[in-house]
Amino acid sequence: MAPAELAAWLRLTESVGPGAARRLLAMAGSAEAVFELPAAALNQALPPQQRDAFKQPSEHLTGLIEQAGTWLAQPGHALLTLGDPGYPPQLLATADPPLLLWLQGRRELLATPSLAVVGSRNPTAQGADNARAFSRALAREGYTIVSGLALGVDAAAHEGALDASGATIAVVGTGLDQVYPRRNAGLAARLLAGGGLIVSEYALGMPVLPANFPKRNRIIAGLSQGCLVVEAALQSGSLITARLATEAGREVFAIPGSIHSPQARGCHALIRQGAKLVESAEDVLEELSGQPAPAAPEIPETPHEQQALLDAMGFDPVSLDALMARSGWPAAELSAALLELELDGQVARLAGQLYQRRRQG
């Protein structure tokens, strides 16, 4: 992008809101031509306060233009504008496509078949396992996994795709000169090293603002052919993503959970509203591609006594006392068996002295 064009786009998007920017672009035809519009056109398109900010660039904007030029000169960094031929068409077709997309990583992923995988920031152990397993299987089938680089299900979804040597896109709510949350800095580095892509509509230097994260969900939904919700409470931001996906005409999938788990209630609500209930990645693949499901992977056999204990647990959280009553095992023997199953990854220890079986595969 030429320096003059970059400066014009940044001046436009930093001076006025997206609605006003679109009106000005419609009048002028390009970002640079916006600044040649006569005063009468500006008076028609902008309220007085915005006109003043538009006419007089701030010192912050001057610094941002310089910073952006330096950032874009680095390998793997790019900026797409709404009118760019490389702008993802599936996102362009949504109700509110971003004016700018800042990119770090492999931008070709924007043109690949993609699926959003979203969910709770505080998932159960089984929820995190499901996010990894579904993402791993879908990535192996050629789908790019799109999520938000948040803690919990988002992180597990990115990890699952990377574990399969697959592709993944992280859509974030800050400028690309920082990683939020900081705990996921290592994951962001792994994502970029593994050929992934990080996307933001926010300029460099944009700090962590709570309002930006629900807004970025429309990009997650817009980049994807469908949206899989793994776990979500009734007030979860993941339900916003699912709603936006529905409004954009995309498929919505939800994994059911325990009727006793608050983290399953959002998924159950989606299913009641028409989302497709899925129990395996093959269910998603069949819906998206119409192809027959591949044979289920073989799961290693569990010793008979351990299997009997797992059967007694079911898949809902259960206390040690309840499990003693179901299985008839003494407390010491039961605790030892649960520890062995926990170390083997088949059981998770939850808060409140509860245990939960983890699905395998």
From TrEMBL:
Gene3D superfamilies: 3.40.50.450, Winged helix-like DNA-binding domain superfamily/Winged helix DNA-binding domain. SUPFAM superfamilies: MCP/YpsA-like (SSF102405). Residues 79-288 form the Smf/DprA SLOG domain. Residues 293-353 form the DprA winged helix domain. Belongs to the DprA/Smf family. This is DNA processing protein.
